[in-house]
């Protein structure tokens, strides 16, 4: 029976590559059990994050002959990033996507991605994240009960606020700025003179609407999909940090999968990564025009001001290095230098 399944599998796989219609036959020959997979995420279903979760679900269904059913739960309906990470560790939820910045409470090293002005463009970020450096950090999650699969793109972060246009760092003076629950962000914006307020993403819109905070920073795609233009007047293009998302699975759940099922999860994750990055970058090119149309007053920080801000936050790198991140930071900067060559 085993030899027959292997032969069927081998011929089926070859055939399926030629004729995807044969995938159900291949799936039939594989060791796949019917499973419902609860996949939580923080942004809306219509966001770039929601579209990529839908794509991932379709890939999982297609590759498993419909047996692996992914149910997406958006708008933090299963909890905020940190709550979902703990649900995965406890085995109460199977999968999620969220920010690497909120993982620092579990693996401190992920904070290295949050240092400002690290990457010049998405190409550099892809090369480092998909390379040995990115994989090393992903592997460090296993002992914590999480399986890191791939990095999706949240994107370059920009500033919004309701008080004034930000044309220089000093304009952030006294601005109550919401940041992710992450020491690197708190340190960075306090250095710019803002009053950094760490808060979960799921509480952000209300905090902006009620004036609990004056501003926040996120990629333009999130400012659009989360309708921040309804509660924020000014948008400043600063691209101050490249923010990754990470696709996670519960190790308790993942370890219970067959080799065939694990391969389907891995292959679907890689396909979803390529889809998500392409989709996010296309969406990002349209967001600024959309936000202008919605009445936001938009300015871009000058190259001279960005250089000044880089100088202002240099001590943040020293602090990160002094707090145990020196080797990791050196490795990351070496990877970036390699990519730039
Ligand atoms: O749950 C939403 C988060 O994954 C992500 O978008 C986080 O960028 C983020 C923020 O500002 O909290």
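Q: What amino acid sequence fits the structure above?
A:
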């Amino acid at each position: 029976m085993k030899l027959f399944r292997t032969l069927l599998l081998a011929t089926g796989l070859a055939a399926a590559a030629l004729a995807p219609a044969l995938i159900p036959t291949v799936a039939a020959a594989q060791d796949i059990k019917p499973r419902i997979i609860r996949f939580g995420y923080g942004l809306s279903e219509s966001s770039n994050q929601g579209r990529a979760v839908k794509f991932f679900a379709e890939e999982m269904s297609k590759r498993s002959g419909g047996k692996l059913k992914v149910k997406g739960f958006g708008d933090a309906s299963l909890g905020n990033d940190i709550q979902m990470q703990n649900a995965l560790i406890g085995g109460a939820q199977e999968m999620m996507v969220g920010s690497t910045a909120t993982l620092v409470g579990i693996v401190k090293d992920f904070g290295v991605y949050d240092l400002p002005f690290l990457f010049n463009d998405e190409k550099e970020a892809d090369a480092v994240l998909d390379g040995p450096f990115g994989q090393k950090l992903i592997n460090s999650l296993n002992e914590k009960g999480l399986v890191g699969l791939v990095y999706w793109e949240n994107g370059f972060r920009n500033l919004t606020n309701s008080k004034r246009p930000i044309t220089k760092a000093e304009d952030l003076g006294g601005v109550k700025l919401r940041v992710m629950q992450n020491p690197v962000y708190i340190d960075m914006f306090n250095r710019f003179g803002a009053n950094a307020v760490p808060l979960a993403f799921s509480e952000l819109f209300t905090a902006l609407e009620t004036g609990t905070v004056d501003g926040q920073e996120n990629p333009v795609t999130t400012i659009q999909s989360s309708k921040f233009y309804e509660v924020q007047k000014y948008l400043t293009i600063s691209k101050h940090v490249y923010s990754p998302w990470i696709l996670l699975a519960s190790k308790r759940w993942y370890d219970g999968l067959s080799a065939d099922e694990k391969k389907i999860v891995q292959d679907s994750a890689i396909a979803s990564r390529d889809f998500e990055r392409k989709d996010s970058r296309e969406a990002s090119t349209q967001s600024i025009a959309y936000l202008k149309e919605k009445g936001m007053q938009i300015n871009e920080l000058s190259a001279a001001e960005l250089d000044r801000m880089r100088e202002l936050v240099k001590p943040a790198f020293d602090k990160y290095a002094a707090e145990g991140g020196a080797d990791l930071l050196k490795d990351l900067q070496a990877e970036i230098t390699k990519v730039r060559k």
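Q: And what stands out in the fold?
A: The longest strand covers residues 146-156.
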